[in-house]
Amino acid sequence: MSSRNCPHCGHRLGNYLYADACPSCHRELTHNTRPLVTPPKLDPNRVRSPMYRAFLGLRNAIER
Ligand SMILES: [Zn+2]
What is the distance in A from the centroid of ligand 1 to the CA of 1? Predict the structure, then answer.
């Protein structure tokens, strides 16, 4: 929301809004790199869902 400008040098990011680093000062844009550290696959609700269990069971059946 409030990350349109580089937090380090204030450079307007524009097309680099979702880049890992600022195109001007080349420092890490933490608001972009942080979400990559916690992928949505680790969501416990998704893992426990019956659909996901069925998928795992089906995959095991194919592999064996
Ligand atoms: Zn910058």
Answer: 17
